[in-house]
Amino acid sequence: MLPGQCQYWGVPVADSFKQWINLLPGQCQYWGLPVADYFKQWINLKKAYSFAMGCWPKNGLLDMNKGLGLQYTGRPHSGIEDCRNVANIMKTLACRGFILKQTSKPF
């Protein structure tokens, strides 16, 4: 590996397809960066949750937290607080034996 390069070993997670497909390319364009290949596939947390729990979380993170018996923390739509909620949902699903897998198709 060359200096300045990182070795990618995971898959990104987003709360929803709409969030990922709309926000990521726009942010990359704003910074003048291409969308890296490893960002072209991801885990849609709503879809993963619905596979694990058998129901679609209509209200996103709020419903997923409630369905898992978790307390929603922070302010909705606040970047770092949403990240904490996403991580907590993922951890809870994994602890219950659900294996999180890529749910998207590359765009």
How would you describe the overall organization of this protein?
- With 107 residues, this protein is mainly alpha-helical.
- It has one domain.
- It has four helices and two strands, in the order βαβααα.
- A two-stranded parallel ribbon has the order 1-2.
- Strand 1 (13-14), helix 1 and strand 2 form a beta-alpha-beta unit.
- The longest helix is centred in the C-terminal third of the chain and has 17 residues, at 79-95.
- The chain is globular.
- The model has no long low-confidence stretch (mean pLDDT 86).
Q: Order of helices and strands, N to C?
A: EHEHHH
Strand order of the largest sheet: 1-2
Shape: globular
Total number of strands: 2
| Uncertain residue segments | none
Count of separate DSSP helical elements: 4
Instruction: Name the beta content range.
Output: under 5%
Rounded mean pLDDT score = 86
Helix coverage percent: 40-55%
Distance N to C terminus: 27 Å
- The secondary-structure class comes to mainly alpha
Q: What is the domain total for the residues?
A: 1
Q: Profile the largest sheet.
A: 2 strands, parallel
The whole-angstrom Rg is: 15 Å
